[in-house]
Specification:
This is Shikimate kinase 2. The protein has 174 residues and is of the alpha/beta class. Helices cover 55% and strands 13% of the residues. It has a 5-stranded parallel sheet, with helices on both faces. The protein is globular. The chain binds adenosine-5'-diphosphate, shikimate-3-phosphate and magnesium ion.
């Protein structure tokens, strides 16, 4: 199997963290669409949104998705990548898409501990817990529609990696 692997899911579900560990386990390269676009723009997410609005950011993240997609590549997407129908279709057709599913409580706990405001400016103007609930309610169906596999992202990162390898039939002890 050499197809690109796309990780999707809400802010804080661990796409960036798990993506790096999954790439190591498979000896694949790792790319994160947010890292790519921030390097390309010379600005962080908050600065892009301030200058160009969310519409500008969404355009840049679709470009990033196209740019980083390659064989033997693990790709951590941003939480809103699935909003565009063309991104969902592109990921499903070009590779294997994995939804890292976690509860609102778990996501809010992680984001409260590590808000990373430059990477995650507010989407709704609400507090973290309310925002996570509102955004997940709006996007959960899109993550499921995009995904070939759903894994439990509330476990420690290495266990999430193991679940993914099992879903891909790349591990023996599942
Ligand atoms: N499986 C996990 N268990 C506990 N904490 C995690 C896990 N995955 C990620 N984290 C932590 O949650 C925060 C967000 O993780 P990150 O990988 O940036 O998520 P995402 O890219 O999906 O927004 C980080 O502080 C990270 O250390
Ligand atoms: O959910 C979202 O709309 C976003 C998630 C962020 O990425 P992470 O999911 O890696 O935090 C980043 O792309 C941007 O702040 C928008
Ligand atoms: Mg991330």
């Amino acid at each position: 199997m050499t197809q690109p692997l796309f990780l999707v899911g809400a802010r804080g579900c661990g796409k960036t963290t798990v993506g790096g560990e999954l790439a190591q386990a498979l000896n694949y390269r790792f790319a994160d669409t947010d890292h790519w676009l921030q390097q390309n723009a010379g600005m962080n997410v908050a600065q892009i949104v301030e200058g160009e609005g969310w519409a500008g950011f969404r355009q840049r993240e679709s470009q990033a998705l196209q740019a980083v997609t390659a064989p033997e590549q693990v790709i951590a997407t941003g939480g809103g990548m699935v909003l565009a129908d063309h991104n969902r279709r592109f990921m499903r057709e070009r590779g294997v898409v994995i939804y890292l599913e976690a509860s609102v409580a778990e996501l809010a706990r992680r984001l409260e501990a590590f808000p990373e405001e430059g990477q995650r400016p507010t989407l709704t103007g609400r507090g973290i817990s309310d925002e996570v609930a509102e955004v997940l309610a709006a996007r959960d169906a899109l993550y499921r529609e995009a995904a070939h596999h759903v894994v439990d992202a509330s476990l420690p990162p290495q266990q999430v990696v193991t679940q993914i390898l099992c879903a891909l039939r790349l591990a023996d002890a599942c």
